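User: Before I run my own analysis I want an independent prediction to cross-check against. Here's the chain; please return only the structure tokens and, at the end, one sentence I can use as a sanity check.
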Amino acid sequence: MKKRTPVSVIMTKEVITLSSTDDLMTAEKLFKKERIRHIPVVSGNEIKGMLSYTDLLRISFADAIDENETDVDTVVYNMFTIDQVMAKNLVTVSSTTTIKEVAEILAKKEFHALPVVDGNELVGIVTTTDLINYLLEQF
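Assistant: Structure tokens:
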């Protein structure tokens, strides 16, 4: 295993994003359709926050009903905006941050994804799943 491998090797580069003007129903549909758990919230290419599927679960019944039933969630989702639900004080890394450094951050924090930002521009996202897959490839 290479000790200085940059996170750019394992990060997702084609990032699915939301804008703060999107609604929470749109977010839930993206989570389910794309089978992802974290979506950066951006303004242009600049990251403003991170919405996780767990954030939605805290305010809704997203997992408690059939995928095609949206009445209950719609009422709850209309009570909140993405800005109100997303995490705003983000820890970010650059594309040159090593995988080891990313693993150390994720091991110590209570979140499972890090936006990868170069300058002020979102260039990727790295998750605990990316790390686990990388480690599995080493064996």
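Sanity check: Strands lie at 38-43, 46-52, 113-118, 121-127.
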